[in-house]
C-alpha cells in the first residue's frame, strides 16, 4: 500500500434507524482495481456516494488523492468519475449530444468537448450510434455511454457502482474489457459488485463488506486461502452417505454438506490433508468413492463463509 | 479544470453552465418536438372546448365576446404549466441519476436550477407566441395598444419564471419521476379554480376566496385589464383582482424569495 489514492477511515452513516455504514475503512493503492464486494444493503453504494462527494459521512473521513471529500469536494470532483447502477444520461439527447453536454459542463472548451466526445465514442465502439437518441439504445449501450461519460475528464479515480447489474453476459464482458483498458492506462478503479466472478475477474484487491463494515480484505487468492481447500466426494453407493459423512467430519473437523444424493462437500482446514489419506480413511469405513477431488474454494464459498450466510446447495 | 474558483470565476461558470443546460433543453426539444406539441395541444383543445363548446353557454359579466374573455385565462394557464413542466423534468433528473452526475462533477452548483428555469423561460416564450397566434385566429386581440399589451406579456413571463422555481423545488423534493408525473393532472383543477374560464362571483364563498387568491386569477385579471378584454373586475372584488398588476408582481416576488433559496438548498444538500 505504497501510495493509497483512496482512503476512508471509520466512515459512519445512518439513515434514520438504518445504520448503512458502521466504521468502514478502505485503502486503494493508485493504479489498482479494488472490488468492494457485499450483499444487497451491505453499504456499498453509501460508501461510494460518500467517496464521490454526493453524501456526507456522519463520522469518519475520506480522502481522494489527498483531498478531503467533505472540505475539498471541488478538488475531489475534478479528479473522479462516477458511473452508477442507472445510466445517468439524458435519454432525450443523442449519445454524442450527451457527451458534448457533459464535456461542456466539465468546462472543456466547445471544440475540446466535441473532440473528446468523438474520441470516446470511437474508442468505446459507440460511433455508429452517436447520432441516435439514447432512448433507442440497448441496456449494454446505455451502460457503456454512462461509463464513458464519466471518463470525459480522464479521472484519476473511477467509481463504478455495480456497473454490470442487469446486463447480459456479453455486455458484461464488454464492460469488463473496457475497465481493464482503463486500468492499463493508469486509472484507479473502485468497483462495487455483488457478482463474485466480476470481482474475481477485475479486482486486484477485494474488500468484503457486510453490515456497513469491511470484514475481510485481500487478493482473490488470499481470500480463498483463508478458508482452505474444498473436498468434493462422489459416492458409488448413495447408501454409504452417512458413514462417508462421519469419516469426512472426523478428518475435516466440520460437518460436510450434502450436495446431492451421492455427493458430499467439506471445507478442509488450511494446511490441508493429503488426498491419499482421505481415500484410505473412506476405504477403511467401507465407503467406495467414484470420485474424490480437492479444489480451491470459489469466491462464492469464501463470501458465504465470511458473511456467515447459509451455504449454497446446488 | 476548476477546483476552488474565485467568486468572479464562479459567477462566470454559473452563467456558462446554466447556458449549457439551456442548450440541453433546446437539444431535447429538437430531438423530441412531441413534448412541446403535447404541451400545446392541451391549451389548443381548451380554446376549442371553452371558446366554442362551453363558451356558447357562458355569459361574460359585462357583455362581450367569450373568446376575448377566455384568452387571457388560457395565457395564464400556459404560464402556470411552467411549474408542472419544470417539476417533472427535475424529478426525472433526480430519479435517473442525472442529478447525481451533475453533483459529482466540478461544475457550478447553482447552475442546474438556474439552467433549468432559464430553459423553461425560452420554451415558455415559444408556447406563448403560439398561443397568441391561436388567440388571434379565434378573434382575440389586445385593444389598448402596444405598451399595455407588452406589459401583460411581461407579467406572464415574470410569474412563469417564479412558478418554474416552485417546480424545481417540488421536483427536487419528490425525486421520483413517477410521483411527479402523477401530480401533473392536479394542475388542471388548480388553474380552473380561478377566474380563467368563469367569473368567480358565482362560486360559493369559500371556493370563491380560494379562486380570488389564486395567482392564476391575478394574472388573468391583470391581462384582461391590460389587453382591454372583457371581464376586467369592477366594483366590490377581492384585493388581488382589484389590484391585479400589483398582485402578480407580489406573487412573483414572494414565490422567488421563498423558492429560489429553498431550491438551491435542496439541490446542494448532500445527505442521501
TrEMBL record, chain A:
The keyword S-adenosyl-L-methionine does not apply. It comes from the Bacteria. It is found in: Cell membrane. One of its GO terms (cellular component) is plasma membrane. Residues 6-236 form the ABC transporter domain. Its main location: membrane. It is a peripheral membrane protein. One of its GO terms (molecular function) is ATP binding. GO terms for biological process: daunorubicin transport; doxorubicin transport; response to antibiotic. Keywords: Antibiotic resistance, ATP-binding, Cell membrane, Membrane, Nucleotide-binding, Translocase, Transport. Belongs to the ABC transporter superfamily. Drug exporter-1 (DrugE1) (TC 3.A.1.105) family. This is Daunorubicin resistance protein DrrA family ABC transporter ATP-binding protein. It comes from Nonomuraea glycinis.
Automatic annotation (TrEMBL), chain B:
Belongs to the ABC-2 integral membrane protein family. InterPro entries: ABC2_TM, ABC2_TM_bact-type, ABC_2_transport, Nod_factor_ABC_transporter. It comes from Nonomuraea glycinis. The lineage of its organism: Bacteria, Bacillati, Actinomycetota, Actinomycetes, Streptosporangiales. It is found in: Cell membrane; Membrane. This is Transport permease protein. GO terms for molecular function: ABC-type transporter activity. Pfam families: ABC2_membrane. GO terms for cellular component: ATP-binding cassette (ABC) transporter complex. It is a multi-pass membrane protein. Residues 34-270 form the ABC transmembrane type-2 domain. One of its GO terms (biological process) is response to antibiotic. Its main location: membrane. Keywords: Antibiotic resistance, Cell membrane, Membrane, Transmembrane, Transmembrane helix, Transport. The chain crosses the membrane at residues 36-58, 70-92, 113-140, 152-174, 241-264.
